[in-house]
Specification:
Blueprint lengths: L3 E5 L10 H10 L4 E4 L16 H11 L4 E7 L6 H14 L4 E5 L18 H18 L4 E5 L4 E6 L12 E4 L3 H10 L2 E4 L11 H21 L8 E5 L13 H12 L5 E5 L11 H14 L2
Parallel strand pairs: 1-2, 1-10, 2-3, 3-4, 4-7, 7-8, 8-9, 9-10
Antiparallel strand pairs: 5-6
Amino acid sequence: MKLRLSTVILPYRRWHEGGRAAWQRAEELGFHTAYTYDHLSWRSFRDGPWFGAVPTLTAAAAVTRRMRMGTLVTSPNFRHPVPYAKELISLDDISGGRFTLGVGAGGSGFDATVLGQEPWSPRERADRFAEFVQLLDRLLTEDSVSYDGDFYSAHEARNIPGCVQRPRLPFMVAATGPRGLRLAARYGQAWVTTGDPKLFESGTPEQSVRAIRGQVEKLADACAEIGRDVAELGKVLLTGFTPDRGRPLESLDAFVDFAGRHRELGFTEIVLHWPIPDSDFAADEKVFEQIAMEAQAQLR
């Protein structure tokens, strides 16, 4: 399968002061998909400008024509499946069926306590994640849903006319643990990883590749448990969180080498952060654009 290149555009710029231009330029450069983070605030950007994912994606859908778009990723930290399903169906409609839902369990960062709750334990996050995905799957495929779960409820929730994409818009499930990988196997059209976070500070690129290979193997096991061919799932790597950090964006050759090593692991899509000056995602914009325009030809 051809390796796709995508980008993630963080929502930190006003729409008329660079936000719109970035999404339009991403389409001009030929990226397969442009994603944005679905957080209320995030790490070092917490005390600066940060805009909402759904309005940003809605605006992006209106100023692009071909490129897909999506969240990378939504979590249960501040979302409820019932109202969110209505927004997702609307996004899918406005974009003409170009929307992908990236979804994950969420972490213990700012979003985990912004509504005034105590941070959930890892087990509760996993439990909520499972229920969140299962209920969203029903809400996006059935006209009317009633549900009474441990964490979420729905009473005759209507979602007519449903998604443009059938039977529903695709799920891209972020997971590395056993339960999350089983969710990806059962509900995902794609799986996404950032690598092994334990290796980010002191690991090596070689250790990272071995760890990611192990994740891919566990995904295959999860698929085998339910009789699904793991080849049916797209495999997506969000870059910037492996020990390589920003080195793959230092040159076209460096990226082709990085991407080639991960394509050999079975990855079908690699996602690059749109350069942000004076941040962890700083990069030379000319090199970034060269990679977008020329790398795929060298990876065939």
